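Q: How would the structure tokens look for this protein?
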Amino acid sequence: MRAMELLRTLDGEAYTWLTAPERPPRHWSRSHFNITLKCPILLNNLCESFNFWIMSARYKPIISMMEEIRVKLMRRIQMRRDLMMRWERAICPRPLAKLETSKKQVGDCIAIMYGGPKFQVDTATGGQFIVDLDERTC
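A: Here is the predicted structure in token form.
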């Protein structure tokens, strides 16, 4: 028995709702989705990592898939929250490491007030930069 015929016998209202003209199958049925790539640069590390992470859910029906992804995300958020609750500093570890690296790099720079929110920054190598804090430009 085909899936839609089975649905009609199980729940006539659901069958009627899904087969309404304003609700074509391409909007709700995986068999009717257009799977051609819309962007040639679709794969990157983030996409590949996420797709691998949800691999077990990808082939389930849409509601089950979304529920599994939701639960995985909730667990991940809770795990991260638990890790951060043990952290005793005001800044998270990775941004803190970047800040420390930046502090070492600017150790040889001298900032001189240029007027208002602007500063002239002189470097040890002889470079000069005008930094505008309002415009966030350099």
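DSSP finds five helices and three strands in the chain.

Residues 93-132 form one domain.

Upvote if useful.
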